[in-house]
Amino acid sequence: NAGVTQTPKFQVLKTGQSMTLQCAQDMNHEYMSWYRQDPGMGLRLIHYSVGAGITDQGEVPNGYNVSRSTTEDFPLRLLSAAPSQTSVYFCASSYSRTGGNSPLHFGNGTRLTVT
Amino acid sequence: AQTVTQSQPEMSVQEAETVTLSCTYDTSESDYYLFWYKQPPSRQMILVIRQEAYKQQNATENRFSVNFQKAAKSFSLKISDSQLGDAAMYFCAYRSPPYYGGATNKLIFGTGTLLAVQP
Fold first, then answer.
1. Residues A18/A21/A22/A25 CA torsion (nearest 10 deg)
2. CA distance B106 to A99
3. What is the pLDDT of residues A7-39, one digit of tens each?
4. Do residue B105 and residue A48 have CB atoms under 8 angstroms apart?
5. Neighboring chain A residues of B42 at a CB cutoff of 8 Å
6. Rounded-to-10 torsion of CA B9, A61, A92, B98
7. Which residues does A103 contact at the CB level (< 8 Å), separation at least 6?
8. pLDDT given for residue B101 in this prediction
9. Which of A42, A99, A108 lies closest to B95 in CB terms?
10. Which of A11, A14, B53, B61 has the fewest beta carbons under 10 Å from its own?
11. Interface of chain A toward chain B, CB-CB under 8 angstroms
């Protein structure tokens, strides 16, 4: 059971470059989301999706785009990378779109450095 | 807006001893969900324990238990018989009740407590 798979694990970008962080889950989860983790700030929600074709912004959406064409995949796109986007990124999914006590299942994270 | 505060950036405990990590939150909602996640050096986020606010009984998972004080808006994590493998960053997280719509699945995280376990 793969769970939530994120690629790549590490990435270095130059300012202005674009890239896509991939996320896939094989648990048929409705809800998928992207968080970023920065020292002293915990995890903050970037974007989320409650099903295929439906996405919405989280707490820190600027500079990021998402789409959800299938239930399984939820890629995160950086259109023009900035040093402020240096962070660790986590994809997380959950069975229930409405939450409750359904836990989030996390991928193993991507460490992104923008120089 | 809801906030989660972890006032202890770092804690240390001797192996086999007990340690308590603090978490407080601010909310005007009466029903919600609380979680503790563990993040070891591998960076993986692992669910430790969860609590529904409408349940008065404190949740327990093996050596991990919580002290949930709803009136005080406090949700501390107690780790008994600490082991070297417990060394990790611990995050407290809050989730709103489901009737507020699609955004309610999001977790609001505290800033974390880094726990060191001394042999």
1. -150
2. 8
3. 999 999 999 999 999 999 999 999 999 999 998
4. yes
5. 108
6. 90
7. A94, B35, B47, B50
8. 52
9. A99
10. A14
11. 31, 33, 35, 40-45, 48, 50, 54, 56, 58, 88, 90, 92, 94, 96-104, 106, 108-109, 111
pLDDT tens per residue across span A38-71: 988 899 999 999 889 999 999 999 999 999 999 9
Distances (CA, A) of B66 to A7, A74, A83, B70, B95: 34, 34, 39, 12, 16
- The position carrying tokens 């409650």 is A50
Q: How open is the CA angle B85-B20-B113, to the nearest 5 degrees?
A: 65
Given B50, B52, B91, which is nearest A43 (Cβ)? B91
CA distance A94 to B105: 8
Q: What is the mean pLDDT of residues A86-99?
A: 88
The DSSP output letter for B113 is E
A36-54: string of b/e by CB count within 10 Å (b at 16+)? bbeeeebbbbbbbbbebee
**Cα angle B63, B65, B70; round to 5:** 175
